[in-house]
Write a structure and sequence with these properties.
Layout lengths: L9 H24 L6 H27 L12 H30 L1
């Protein structure tokens, strides 16, 4: 509302879009967990890991937007942009893969 072109900072737009996509992903994960053969504790962990990384990603986008960052966050190589991204990939893909695997085990095997 206070910017010259009446637009939010770039990373605030990214945070908004990511939040919408992650909310849909979380709902799909919740529905797939209904059919999971795993224990409640294991289900909690395999859902919590991707949800944690979803939240961290959105918070990072908001932080970058409030800082007025306009170039890619990956232009500066540091611990977060290297090992943090590897952890995010493994956590999100691994957690969702386990959820889908549980669904497949109960529905198709």
């Amino acid at each position: 509302m206070v910017s010259e072109n009446q637009r939010a900072p770039i990373y605030i737009d990214v945070a908004h879009r990511a939040a919408l996509m992650y909310s849909f992903a979380a709902l799909v994960m919740a529905q797939l967990l209904i059919y999971s053969p795993y224990s409640a504790t294991f289900q909690l962990w395999i859902a919590a890991v991707p949800l944690f990384f979803f939240a961290v990603s959105i918070a990072t986008y908001i932080k970058l937007g409030l800082q007025g960052q306009t170039r890619s966050q990956f232009s500066d190589k540091n611990f977060t942009t290297t090992w943090g991204m590897w952890a995010l990939i493994v956590g999100e893909v691994g957690g969702v893969s386990m959820i889908v695997l549980g669904f497949v085990q109960t529905q198709f095997v």
